[in-house]
Amino acid sequence: MSKNAEKLAAQIKGIAGNAPVQLGLILGSGLGHIAEEVDGIAIDYADLPGFPHAGVSGHNPKLVIGDLEGVRVAVFGGRAHYYESGRGDAMRLPLEVLRELGAKAMIATNAAGSLRADMPTGSIMCLTDHINFSGLNPLIGEATDARFVPMMDAYDPDMRAALQAAAQAAQVEMATGIYAWYSGPSFETPAEIRAIRMLGADAVGMSTVPEVILARFLGLKAAAISTITNMAAGMSDEAISHAHTKAMAPIGAAKLEKVLRGYLHGMA
Ligand code: HPA
Q: Phi and psi at residue 44, in whole multiples of 5°?
């Protein structure tokens, strides 16, 4: 564990209290609403030395620590993407801090494009696995043998089952599928989408995969849910733009919030 993470965790505990965090939540584009519902304390990333700038519009770069459905959570309102800095490990420090605060697991959320006609805009999808199509890896440069992280069941089966049970209890339909990571920030071409469809991807996006790799490296359990904001390039005439992503994210976000609340309630 880095000294910087220890220092930051001590700083955060000084502000938010010593009670251990049980779960980390990383929020995707346009999915920031849930951070406002946490009964707790918000700290700007700017006040946490070394935290990424997370400057993408639709993200709110704050760490919120507090209670949601009886569970002590740490909500990362802004995520840093590879395409912002060229650094695949941009979320390493926040995840190290999360572990230092006591968390054993994290759930990542994201906005994604759908590759499946039966998963239209507004759907949500629980990730069962991923394809790292970017070829990048946040552990490049890590000098220890710990870098050889096994990625079987990277999306924790027990967490997935509990999330699916929470969806069912809330009468929310939640698809399951495989997420492919393209680096962005340009959207994919229709040919790139056809290529990953053939390889078995169900959704596409520009995040989450590096964080899940980092989480597994750090020994945190991981799960992730996509909100579908558009059909992927070439799949329909629907617009693909960041403005569209931000406009459409709240449709899936309402479902996502029900699932997360149900999950947390079951954890408490
Ligand atoms: N591609 C990549 N990232 C995305 C998309 C997409 O179609 N929609 C939302 N994020």
A: -65, 140
Q: Which of 79, 229, 237 to mutate to test ligand 1, by most ligand atoms within 8 A of the CB atom? A: 229
At residue 6, what is the residue type? E
124-153 per-position pLDDT tens digit: 999 999 999 999 999 999 999 999 999 999
Q: Are 193 and 180 in contact (CB under 8 A)?
A: no
State the virtual CA torsion across 77, 85, 148, 144 in degrees, nearest 10: -100
Instruction: Give residue-wise pLDDT tens across range 42-58.
Output: 999 999 999 988 667 76
Distance 178 CA to ligand 1 centre (A): 14
CA torsion 152-154-160-162 (nearest 10°) is: 100
Q: DSSP assignment of 3-29, as one string?
A: HHHHHHHHHHHHHH-SSPP-EEEE--T
Closest ligand 1 atom number to CA of residue 233: 7
CA pair distance 132, 130, nearest whole angstrom: 6
- What average pLDDT does this structure show over 27-40? 88
60 CA distance to ligand 1 middle (Å) = 19
**CA 145 to ligand 1 centroid distance, Å:** 34
Q: What is the C-alpha to C-alpha distance for residues 135 and 108, in angstroms, rounded to an integer?
A: 20
What whole-number distance in Å separates Cα of residue 53 and Cα of residue 135? 24
User: Domains (ranges, CATH) in the chain?
Assistant: 3-267 (3.40.50.1580)
Which residue's C-alpha comes closest to atom 9 of ligand 1? Answer: 112
3-state secondary structure of 46: helix
Residues 6+ apart with CB under 8 A from 48: 8, 11, 12, 63, 97
pTM for this predicted structure: 0.96
